[in-house]
UniProtKB/TrEMBL annotation:
This is Chromosome partition protein Smc. Belongs to the SMC family. Required for chromosome condensation and partitioning. Gene3D superfamilies: 1.20.1060.20, 3.30.70.1620, P-loop containing nucleotide triphosphate hydrolases. It comes from Candidatus Termititenax persephonae. GO terms for molecular function: ATP binding; ATP hydrolysis activity; DNA binding. The keyword Membrane does not apply. Residues 169-196, 239-403, 679-706, 742-874, 917-1031 form a coiled coil. ATP binds at P34, N35, G36, C37, G38, K39, S40, N41.
Amino acid sequence: MHLKKLELFGFKTFPDRTVLRFTDARGITAVVGPNGCGKSNIIDAFRWVMGEQSIKLLRGSTQEDIVFAGTESRKPVSLAEVFLTIDNSDHALPIDYTEVEVGRRFYRTGDSEYLINKEIVRLRDVQELLMDTGIGKGSYSIIGQGQVVSLIQSKPDDHRKLLEEAAGIHKYKFRKDATQRKLEAAEQNLFRLSDIRAEIHQQLGPLEEQARTAGEYKILKKDLAGLEIGLFKVKLGKLDAFQQEVAQKIAEYKKIVDEAEMSAQDIAAKKQEFRGRIVGLDKQLAEHDARLQDLRRQKAESANKFDVAHERIGNHQQRALAVAQELVQLEANKTALLARQNEAQTELLAVEKSVAELEERLAKKNEETRVVVERWQVVNQEIAGLRRDLQDFFNQVENKKSKLMGLESGETMVAGDLQRIETSLTDFAKEQEELTLREAALQERRIFVDDNVASLHARRDELFKQKSAQEEARRDKLNRRTTIKEKFDQQSSRLQLLDELQQTHEGFQKGVRAVFQAKQDNVPGFAGVGGVLADIINVPKQYESAVEAALENNLQAIVAENLGAAKEALKHLKDQALGRATFAAGGLLKPTEKINPPRGICALDIVSCEERYKDFVAAFLGAVCIVDDLEQAFSVPLDGLSMVVTLAGEVITAQGLVTGGAVGKEAESVSLLSRQREIIELRHDIAGYTAELAALDAEIKDSERLGGQIEDELKEHAGKLKHLEIEQGTIANDLARIVIDCGKLEKNVAASRQEVAQQRGEMDRIAAEKQNLQTLLAELTRQKEEKEKIIQNRESDLQQADSEKTTVNELLTEIKIGRTNALAAKRQVELKLESCRDNIQQTEKQIAEKKLEQENLQKSIAEAENVLQSSQKILPEIDQQIEQALAQSTTANQERARYFNDLEVYDRMEKERHASDREVRAKLSEEEIKMARVEAEYEEMLRRMSEEYNLTVEDALRTEAAVEDYDQTQDEVEKLKRRIKRMEPVNLLAIDEYEAQKERLLFIEGQCDDLEKSKNDLLNIIKELDRAAIEAFKETFAVVNEHFRRIFTALFNGGEAELHILDENNVLESGIEIMARVPGAKKSQSMSLLSGGQNALTAVALLFSLLSARPGPFCILDEIDAALDDPNIGRVTELLKEYAEKTQIIIITHRQAMMSVADVMFGLTMAQKGISSVVSLKLPENKEKALLEA
């Protein structure tokens, strides 16, 4: 895998589409250019396209900063996009393409896109594609400007992240994070399913009871359906018989109407015939009119043609004279052109001769020029060889100077180290004192944190108890609300049913229902009709049976304001055969004087009603005595009483008749008085339930709010605990580190004293080596000066050869110019000759066209004369045809008037027939209305069968339901209905709900088991991922540490360095500390004690040790040489060449020493302010020479 191409458009200083092609899979590519030309924008483009989100790291303040903002001469662009093409032939990237293009776009509107092979994807897809390849966001494969030293000076945790990238454990962490999210989701689902399971257990008990009731209810409904279907079959038979009778009458009337319609059809046929003839005559008249118009049009056209032909003959004759004159002029022009053609041919022969002479001179002079140029090339090549020798001397001199500078730098470094060591001895004493004070402070802080952790744990336990109590209280309230809601729904259903029965007067006689239906339909005469006696009185519950027994059927007596209203209602019932009813009419009903019985009470005393109905009620109950039981009733004298009734409903009349016994529950269920009372009680109960539900909802809401507060406090405590526990770990680590640092300090003091002696010996060695280098440098300088003198002498020879070459070239140029002028003159003559030939051809063509025009004019004149003669002949014929058409039109108009008269006669006959037909149709309409009523009743029965039992007529007739006694069957139906109503409301869905809840409970329990198993599996996966990550980290750490020691020693020409894991027990979270001892130092030191150059060189060592452990497909380095001097750059370039054999390296630099190792260079310039442009250069094998010449 390697880079193939980077394409930028609109990104920072690249407004034009810019492409950088990386042709080699290995080697070094350098991006060079002056400061401020946009080199670092190349690094930013690499980071950005691979998913970098930190705008600060991209050296901007907002996302819009990456889009080209425009200059004084260039408008801003609307988007920025970067595409990175990667060769994936080895399938290192997990995608089935041998070439992968990763892209990113950002629009100035704020929208952005990520692309893989032109397909829009998510940021996560790009990150997963590049994960653990060594080239992802934040990897060590891309080192930006100023980031080299930060590799060393960053925190230990950041050092660990570099090792993680090299170890390739991001995939483990990614999978671990995903697994932990799944684990949290599984635990949440398990908690939620436990609540659901508890709730289902609570619901199953009530549902089981409801399901049992629903089963019994369905059986009763089935029995009721069988009886009602039998009644439907009987009613259908009666309706069929009546329907046949009406259908016979309708057929007779229709026969009379059909005969009348036959006569009407004859009249209509005659009328249609006359109308058809009139239409035909209208059509003839229209044709005659059209014919007249056409003839008049033809006459006008013929006259117009005559005039046009006459005018055309005159015009053509004039044009023929003009054409003849033009032909004479064209013949004269042709003669002149032929003369000019002959002159041009003579001139062309002379010019061709001159060109041939110049060509001969040019060939001779070319030979002379070749000899001079060859002599110049020999001298030039000799000078080039001398220059190469001079460059070798120059390189040797520079190399020795570089070594001398290195020795001087080393001498200065050693002197500085001596001073630094002496200073560090003083600092070590101070540092020991600071560590002691810091240890005491940390111990005090640890005690404080431990106390807070214990306090928070206690408060958390208390909150968990409060939360448990709150959830238990909330569940109790929810259960109570469910119970009350069920009662509320039952009572509401019951009230709705009773209201419907009350409104439809269910349980009343057919005649009573018919009277109230008529009043509801606003039938005239029913305004004075009031309610029934059962509706206008209120009776306490314990007296209902007694009052119902006293009133019996009079409970359904209809109260009328006057006798007229009662008569009108009775007449309506009789006329419509709607049944019978009893009326209590005002003015006719005499009130009974209220009695005061010796035992018991008067029924009138316990019944209440409105003032206007008191006389009606007194007439029925004024002489009724109510006692407790039958024994007491027999002891009451009957004088002045109409009857004595007991609380159980037993009756003794004034005539001595005794009525008693037991009544069934079916009779009790249709009590009209109890229904009215029950409606009032139900409304009162429902109001109470509504208030109680509202109160419970408020309590539940308060409980949920309290639960939310507890949950928020728990989360807050969890955050504090986590923070404190982290702080506990940090304090423990810091204390352990202090112990380690104290031991190190003691070692450092001893090592520093020993290092002083070593550094003084190093100073003496450097002084001797400097003396030798200075002597050698003087000799090399002398040899270089001799070579320069030789080159000066040969350059004077080259100047003389240059002068000869210039003279010969000038003469050669003069001859070439003469030849060019001659050739141009020849071309002019040829063009002149060609023009003459073209003009002659054009003139001959015009002559032919004029002759053709003469012939066409003669033909047109002849055609116009023919048209003139034809028009003079046809005009009289057209006038004769016009007279004939006018005569035909007059005849057709006369015949049309005669048919109109016949049509009026038949219209009068049709009106007479309609009068006799109306009477028959009225009778037919009456019978059809009867038929419609029968059909409506029939349809109503079908609708009821369909809606209540989902049966058609055929289905009902096929059933085995039979009715032997119609009235008895009706009674049985009413008893079943009352029994069913007593059971209502019934939750018919309870059976299915009960089974569904049982199945749901089994399913939930299975889900819980699965989640428990899944939870255990996820915990095992996390453990396995941690184990694999630790193994990979430790293995990579060992390899990187080994390479770090080797490369550090090579770069510093000595010294030693290593990496330390701060917490061996928790390597995945532990920081990594870097320790180094530069040459001349006696002990390992912290990075903060090293100089800037030493820090930079150590960072380079760490970077290349990471690349050695896990080479990436490419590495991009931005000015890593900024803090290095020339000798150190030489060592770094050697490393670069070594690693370029394994991977693709891209460097951004402006140092010549770094450029010298590049195989390909991209030069960046900023010809226009704010706009970067790129040029590429493939360097030859002699790169040093190419760079010097450049």
